[in-house]
Design a protein that fits this description.
By secondary structure, the chain is mainly α. The chain contains 19 helices and two strands. The longest helix has 34 residues. The relative contact order is 0.12.
């Protein structure tokens, strides 16, 4: 109980500082909340529940996360000294896409569409709204770009610690989530029985009964998806550093992150690395540097394949040919989702697809593709709006990187954001990846931040 009290005191002190400073209009503190708390958000709940066995405390933490985003969003819109109705709203095309997407979610929430009960719809819509809310908070752009290097240094430290913890899990052959009684929490809160050979869930292992580690993130899939942001940061420093020793440091860091990818072993995130490399090649035209990097990674991959055992070789080949059990599972889920969209192109309602806790799996259709999940629920219009938001976000961030010549920090955040977002496209195609709260919200915040500076650049 002493540990629980200590953790709660630390959390709510941090929470009040973030809230108090954010009320002054400084969105930098909201970003700090995302960076420091959301990576450990799920495991923080596990710790509280393990030592207190209080569902009330866990629900209080969940409520506080939603409260800080929703309340600050409302205050930023309505809480200024002049009338909300007299404000001049200069909406960009991306802003309008977000607005119409949130409006579509609201329509599906208010009207009696679908089989899910109203509470489930509210919980599901809440998480979709937060995506747009965080984007618009990023659009507030109230902190200096000079803070960006500090933000990326903090992120680099956090990601390095996460990979180090995953390495310790591997050395001791023990999941952190086992120690924190993930299975008991999942049973008590989500009514989900333990599964898999490690008595956690199938997410924590891969073919051959080999473990996948999640470090301090919610699970291995969220860990590996988040490492795409880490790799994007390391890529930027590696490409733009003019000091040879610094290049070596960040190259070493990239290989350390690759170890994290291996220990979490998400094939979609690993493919995301390849997408980031080729995208970087396009927007930087650093052909010589990136060709060396591609050569290094290729040698590493083929060496790993050549010296691995037969079981690992078959696993790689089965994955590439979609004969792997997990790959077949993805295909089945995709077919179900596509079939639902064909039969109901206008959507069948919120909380009827995906892996979010608010979705009743008895009525759930599909769940292994973020685009199809939204298509099943919100119809073809939902897919179009979400895809357009993603494409426009990547386009605007990459354009800011290529055209901004006076502010190195803006080039840094626009490069990292565009790379991370395009790298996440593959995980989005194989999972309900927007429920990975940290990587989802921090990248959408960065997109909002970049959008403001991109518009300033266009208006010069």
């Amino acid at each position: 109980m002493i540990l629980t009290t200590f953790l709660l005191i630390i959390y709510f002190y941090f929470f009040t500082q973030v809230f108090k400073n954010s009320l002054k209009g400084d969105t930098y503190f909201i970003l700090l909340y995302i960076i420091f708390f959301l990576p450990i958000y799920s495991n923080f709940q596990l710790i509280l529940y393990k030592f207190s066995e209080s569902e009330l405390l866990v629900n209080l933490i969940k409520f506080s996360k939603d409260f800080i985003f929703y309340s600050l969003f409302i205050i930023f819109i309505f809480g200024s000294s002049f009338s909300f109705y007299k404000k001049k709203w200069n909406f960009t095309f991306l802003d309008k896409l977000f607005f119409f997407f949130m409006l579509l979610v609201m329509i599906f929430l208010v009207f009696p569409i679908g089989e899910a009960n109203f509470i489930s719809k509210v919980l599901y819509a809440k998480n979709l709204f937060i995506i747009g809310i965080v984007y618009f908070l990023g659009r507030q752009n109230k902190f200096s770009s000079k803070k960006i290097p500090k933000i990326f240094k903090i992120l680099t430290i956090i990601f390095s610690i996460s990979c180090g913890l995953a390495l310790l899990e591997y050395v001791f052959q023990t999941h952190v989530h086992t120690i924190l009684e993930y299975a008991k929490y999942n049973l008590d809160f989500n009514d989900i029985l333990p599964s898999g050979n490690y008595q956690l869930s199938w997410t924590f292992e891969r073919q051959g009964v080999l473990p996948r580690y999640g470090s301090f993130f919610a699970d291995p899939l969220e860990f590996s998806a988040s490492l795409l942001l880490a790799l994007s940061i390391a890529f930027f420093y590696f490409i733009h550093s003019k000091i040879r020793n610094n290049k070596f440091i960040f190259l070493t860091l990239m290989f350390f992150y690759l170890l994290g990818f291996y220990l979490s072993f998400s094939r979609s995130a690993i493919l995301g690395i390849i997408v980031i490399i080729f995208f970087t090649l396009i927007i930087t035209r650093s052909y010589k540097t990136l060709s060396r990097l591609i050569l290094s990674f290729s040698i590493l991959f083929f060496s790993y394949y050549y010296f691995s055992d037969l079981e690992t070789k078959y696993f790689i080949l089965d994955t590439l040919s979609f004969q792997n059990t997990s790959s077949i599972g993805h295909l089945i889920e995709w077919i179900e989702g596509i079939d639902s969209i064909i039969n109901s192109p206008l959507g069948i309602g919120l909380a009827t697809s995906g892996n979010a806790s608010s979705v009743d799996q008895a009525i759930g259709i599909g769940g292994e593709n973020q685009f199809l999940i939204l298509g099943v629920q919100l119809g073809l219009l939902g897919i179009i709006l979400y895809s357009s938001i993603l494409i426009k976000s990547i386009y605007n961030c990459s354009k800011l990187y290529m055209y901004e010549n006076n502010n190195h920090n803006l080039k840094m955040i626009s490069f990292v954001t565009s790379c991370a977002k395009i790298g996440l496209v593959i995980p989005l195609m194989t999972a309900n990846a927007e429920i990975y709260s940290f990587i989802s919200l921090i990248t959408w915040f960065f997109v909002g931040f970049c959008e403001s500076h991109y518009q300033n650049l266009l208006n010069k």
